[in-house]
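Quick note —
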Amino acid sequence: MDQITNVMEYKEIARQKLPKMVYDYYASGAEDQWTLKENRNAFSRILFRPRILIDVSKIDMSTTVLGFKISMPIMIAPTAMQKMAHPEGEYATARAASAADTIMILSSWATSSVEEVASTGPGIRFFQLYVLKDRNVVVQLVRRAERAGFKAIALTVDTPRLGRREADIKNRFTLPPHLTLKNYEGLDLGKLDKTDGSGLASYAAEQVDQSLSWKDVKWLQTITSLPILVKGVLTAEDARLAVQNGAAGIIVSNHGARQLDYVPSTIMALEEVVKAAQGRVPVFLDGGVRRGTDVFKAMALGASGIFIGRPVLFSLAADGEAGVRKVLQMLRDEFELTMALSGCRSLKEISRHHIVTDWDAPRVAPRL
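Predicted structure written out below.
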């Protein structure tokens, strides 16, 4: 794997190594997959305005997220069923995140439990939560995450029903028989079985609460003191409601373009959400990041950090823990270089003036 020079190269290695059903589950988006392509393409419509002759001999990429100090604003998004990619699955991802001194969000639909992930050693970890119809199960999951030392809840809010992922329907996607959704083990939640279409879509329809609303965000705050990040916000209206309803932070996400097709890319939705939040809570970006330049663009548009999903899965499939470590290191190195070449020594120096987007009105350069 020494010859790998960028994050994108892991995708083809994963495609060759993984069974088609598994690769397609990780790689595909909803319906026409327009948003899937747009999540990447939109970054190319943002250009840099680098500042020169600034002393960039020392660069500090460290930041704090919900009060936790991390080495860089690059974190790991929740992705389901990682043991389909590699036998060590979420264990490997947790160790790689900890080694990089950054945050990992563990999926509710993980193939390793919160307790198992905690057993890998120290690290700052958040728990992604789907609110299920059975609220007693939700309370149990949150309690277990707390006991296992998880520091926040990332509440996924864009999935009252699973998006139409046609690759999963064609492949009749189901969890390989040797794996289970470990957080749900022993909770009598039925099985993710083979069906005529996507087994996951059928399972989600049975278990996930379609009546979920803002009052449930309030309810969650009554059962836990952990901060709650609302994941799946794409509009100013919902950003304001998230703040009003006590969210500790917002993750701008379109669920990896796997839910509603023809929503904007997350990088295009980001600025609207940031402006609506008015600095009252941090806003993070999830989706489409493959380069350090992408990280910088998100920060310039007001993000407090970014999350990566598929790059973790593909590198995990290719090379296990070492692959995930390398992805985090490559993104870190590229981001540091972008900062240096843009004339920024710390995250607070990255500003909107460092970029121009194709949706900006023509404007006069700021007077110094």
